[in-house]
Structures are given as C-alpha cells and as structure tokens.
C-alpha cells in the first residue's frame, strides 16, 4: 500500500478509478479550455448511415479511460509534460449534420484560439473534418489515417461531409497535403475496384493490413515517417482499422484488421514527429455494451496524447534553447 506522501503525489490516482466524475483518462474537467496545452474533447457526431450510434462513443470512452494510468508503457508522462484537461463535448445538432460540422469546427477553433491543441473522441469519422478545419491555421498538414476504408469516396448524399469522404474533403479544402498523407490498415470488402484510385491519383501513401504484416511494426513506422517528413501532422484513428475481436463495437466492422499490439506499436513509433493533434473515431457503444472496444479506443487515444505532449514539450525546449543563445 502507498504511504500518505505517495498518495498526495498521486493526486487523482489516489482515489478508486470507478469513483468521481468520468473524464478522459481522469484528467481535470476544465470546460473553459483556458491555459491548456492539450484539450481532450468529445465530438458526439453521427452521420445517419450504416449502423450508426457512434455519437454515443465519447461517453463510453470516457468511462473506460478511467482504467488508464498516468505513465505510458514506453515511459512517457503526458500529464507531467503538458497542461491537459477534459473540456467536455461540442454541442451538436443530432438532427442536422451540416450544422453539426459547423458547430464542431467552431468548438475546435475556439480551443485553438485559446492556445490548446485538441485530441478528440468521436463520433463518426466525418468529425475529423471539423477537427482539421478548426486546428489548421497555416498551410496544409500531414495526415496519418488509420482505417479499414479509404474515406476518399464521392459524396452520394448531396454535399454532406460524412464518414466516407472526410479525408477527401480535407484535402480538397487544402487542410491536408496529400503528398504527406498515408492511410494505414486498409482491409475488408470493397464497393468497387477503383475505391483506392483517389489515393494513387493524388500521390497519397497507402498501406493495407497485408503491407503492415509484411513490413512489421518497425518497417511500417519507417514508411509512415518517410511519407510525413518533418511537417506538422495530425493523427486520426478509425477503430474499424482494428480486427473485429478488438473492435466489434463500431459501425462498419471489418474482419482481418490490425491488432492492438500493431496499432499501439505504430503509434509509439511516431514519437518525435511534429504532432498537432488527433482523434479516435467510430466507437459505437450499442454494439459492444461490454466496453471492450471503448477501452481499446481509450488506449489508442492515450498514445496520441503521449505523441502530442512529446511534440509540444520538444518545441518548448527548442524555443528555450533558442532564447538562451
């Protein structure tokens, strides 16, 4: 048992993990978003197609993230490196996807205006578009996109941003640089043979699950880093990139995907890059009441937080070194 001095140092971790207000990773709740380096946020958005229900994802991920400790497997302590808090959810309109995109963009932009980057839980993958639109301020950024699907489809719904075209929309709106974008984990059944052509036609990188298996974690990380270079980069992780035993609670599960070991290893391999934020999307609690999918999503989110905190800390140290010259 820890003594009283150890308990005082543990802070929030001194209490039982099933007690208190449920926040992402038991972070402080700070809805004003002021004086933060990283804002943890929920985007309960759900474009009503497929099985849906991802709008309930942030709440379940918050609950399951209480099991996460403060120190990562690799020794990163994000809450020591940066000021991090849960700022709550964007207030969206479940009856109006277009208005929800606008509100989500304003919510993320308001946090960025206060000096915070954002790591978010969704919500369906259409919510990655307002994340990027709210965060990207100067020039297009790089993108690491984990997914079973390309998300560069045409829009069959009449001008909506949604879970199947958000990456394409971000590129077309000059938020993301296709030459510094790579999609990882493509697998599963397909609509048409040409579903990946948009990637190749626009110079985007793409690694299927077979490519990841052939390259291994180290080789996959090397290829991602080669594509990204040194430009500011955003990470988005659709949980359907995972094999179904790891993520049955999602709207479009695809057997044969990435393992959690591969996914966590790849994310840890991105440490040292200029990470400007990220998200984990597509947890649909009604399809996994056990919370197993949400627990995996929370751990993926934590790894993105670690990579983002390291990036902020490295830039802060570099700035201090320049000031000392």
Question: What is the strand and helix layout of this fold?
Answer:
Layout lengths: L3 H7 L27 E6 L13 H8 L13 H4 L2 E6 L7 H17 L3 E6 L5 H8 L5 E6 L19 H7 L3 E11 L10 H5 L3 E4 H20 L4 E6 L21 H9 L6 E7 L10 H33 L1
Structure write-up:
This protein has 325 residues and is of the alpha/beta class. It has a single domain, classed as Ureohydrolase domain (Arginase, Chain A). 36% of the residues lie in helices and 16% in strands. The protein has ten helices and eight strands. The protein has an eight-stranded parallel beta sheet with strand order 2-1-3-8-7-4-5-6, with helices on both faces. Helix 2 crosses helix 10 and helix 8 runs parallel beside helix 9. The longest helix has 33 residues. It is globular, with a radius of gyration of 19 Å. The relative contact order is 0.16. About 2% of the residues have low confidence.
